[in-house]
Write a structure and sequence with these properties.
The chain is mainly alpha-helical and 37 residues long. The protein is built from one helix and no strands. The N and C termini lie far apart (55 Å).
């Protein structure tokens, strides 16, 4: 039971990190494109 909760928490955290990575990548792309102009 405890293992299942732990795995679930890890997956949730993983999804949060993936979302953060996507946001960061988008921000970096915006910054890069704004520097070019």
């Amino acid at each position: 039971m405890a293992e299942t909760v732990q795995v679930h928490a890890l997956r949730m955290r993983e999804q949060q990190y993936l979302a953060l990575d996507a946001q960061t990548a988008t921000l970096l792309l915006i910054l890069a494109s704004s520097k070019q102009t």
